[in-house]
UniProtKB/TrEMBL annotation:
It holds the Pfam family Aminotran_4. Its EC number is 2.6.1.42. It is an enzyme of class 2 (transferase). GO terms for molecular function: L-isoleucine-2-oxoglutarate transaminase activity; L-leucine-2-oxoglutarate transaminase activity; L-valine-2-oxoglutarate transaminase activity. It catalyses: L-valine + 2-oxoglutarate = 3-methyl-2-oxobutanoate + L-glutamate; L-isoleucine + 2-oxoglutarate = (S)-3-methyl-2-oxopentanoate + L-glutamate; L-leucine + 2-oxoglutarate = 4-methyl-2-oxopentanoate + L-glutamate. Acts on leucine, isoleucine and valine. GO terms for biological process: isoleucine biosynthetic process; L-leucine biosynthetic process; L-valine biosynthetic process. Belongs to the class-IV pyridoxal-phosphate-dependent aminotransferase family. PANTHER family: AMINO ACID AMINOTRANSFERASE (PTHR42825), BRANCHED-CHAIN-AMINO-ACID AMINOTRANSFERASE 3, CHLOROPLASTIC-RELATED (PTHR42825:SF2). The lineage of its organism: Bacteria, Pseudomonadati, Bacteroidota, Bacteroidia, Bacteroidales. Its cofactor is pyridoxal 5'-phosphate. Keywords: Aminotransferase, Pyridoxal phosphate, Transferase. Pathway: Amino-acid biosynthesis; L-leucine biosynthesis; L-leucine from 3-methyl-2-oxobutanoate: step 4/4; Amino-acid biosynthesis; L-valine biosynthesis; L-valine from pyruvate: step 4/4; Amino-acid biosynthesis; L-isoleucine biosynthesis; L-isoleucine from 2-oxobutanoate: step 4/4. This is branched-chain-amino-acid transaminase. It comes from Duncaniella freteri.
Length: 340
């Protein structure tokens, strides 16, 4: 264990670790896994990732459990989603087995950075794939680099698991209809920075985007999916322009396990008047409860949390998912890969 790190006070930033792992796709095949101690990447000046945004990524976490073992949450799902993102922007899909091997290796090599059980912190795993061949014409690259860096991150909620406010701003879209919204493409994040900063300046934690075509239905909440509880039912938007969140998928399964009905469907803005709980869901926070949703175009304010506390169903789902990741309760669905 690294004595110098203050596990309870880590931010969601970047702390150097000992190693990263890399693999190149060249001459039509993926090569051997390479272990690197360098924090830098050597790229050709004309690499497609630099000019035309051929870049995709993933995000997952490893935890030290109650039993001292390290658990990586749902890595197969991340492997598949990376393949979908790759196909989406004509990059080379990485075989699932290679992904697994590299994630496990990156965690094992940096084992001393996996925060202790009870600290609330975890080891964030960031896989990334880049188009690296030199090409000035607009075409997909022939060569790719896939790599994984890991870095310890603090508990998402410094001030505790408390609701924050979000807003609707119709002047911004994160993605286009029939665009790249369903893939984890770096460019989607670039496209969301202006809106995100604007929302932060106004005191909101995130933008709740509407569907980019009709601006009628809820889409997602910045870099997280949106879910709500309405009359005891778990509702979450069905949309082709949102990223299929693995956290959302897991929470839907847990809700069903608890006998809560789940509906993936269109949700109109007006429906926000009738919801009892809401949260932004994703790997970073699992569920970030929503206090109020302000529609800045119509001036309507939808107060979701009347007492300033997260709703009971959101809380139960959040605690259950956390308990699985920490090995506190049985992993009935086989979601965790145990490293040691
Ligand atoms: C990564 C991401 C999410 C959350 O997905 P998880 O698999 O739950 O971490 C949601 N929306 C967007 C746009 C994302 O990029």
């Amino acid at each position: 264990m690294d004595k110098e790190l203050d596990w309870g006070n880590l931010s969601f930033g970047y702390i150097p670790t000992d190693y990263n792992v890399r693999c190149y796709f060249r001459d039509g095949k993926w090569g051997e896994i390479e272990v690197s101690q360098s924090e830098e990447v050597n790229l050709h000046i004309a690499a497609t990732c630099l000019h035309y945004g051929q870049e995709i990524f993933e995000g997952l976490k490893a935890f030290r459990g109650k039993d001292g073992k390290i658990r990586i949450f749902r890595l197969e799902e991340n492997a598949r989603r990376l393949q979908e993102s790759a196909k989406g922007i004509l990059m080379e899909p990485l075989p699932e087995e290679k992904f697994r091997e590299m994630v496990v290796k990156a965690v094992e090599l940096n084992e001393r950075f996996v925060p202790p059980y009870g600290s609330g912190a975890s080891l964030y795993i960031r896989p990334i794939e880049l188009g690296i061949s030199a090409q000035v014409g607009v075409k997909p690259a022939k060569e790719y680099l896939f790599m994984i860096l890991v870095t310890p991150v603090g508990p998402y909620f410094k001030t505790g698991f408390k609701p924050t406010n979000i807003c609707i701003m119709r002047q911004y879209d994160r993605v286009a209809p029939n665009g790249t919204g369903m893939w984890k493409v770096g460019g989607n994040y670039a496209a969301s920075l202006t809106a995100g900063e604007h929302a932060h300046e106004l005191g909101y934690s995130a933008v709740l985007y509407l569907d980019p075509k009709e601006k009628k239905y809820l889409d997602e909440c910045g870099p997280a999916n949106f879910m709500a509880i309405k009359n005891g039912v778990y509702i979450t938007p069905a949309s082709d322009s949102i990223l299929p969140s693995i956290t959302n998928k897991s929470l839907m399964q847990l809700a069903e396990d608890m006998g809560i009905k789940v509906e993936r469907r269109h949700i109109t803005v007006d429906e926000l008047a009738d919801i009892d709980e809401a949260a932004a869901v994703g790997t970073a926070a699992v569920a970030s409860p929503v206090g109020e949703i302000d529609d800045l175009d119509t001036g309507k304010k939808y107060v979701v949390s009347k007492n300033g506390e997260p709703g009971p169903i959101t809380t139960r789902l959040y605690e259950t998912l956390n308990a699985i990741r920490l090995g506190e309760i049985e992993d009935r669905h086989g979601w965790c890969t145990i490293v040691e």
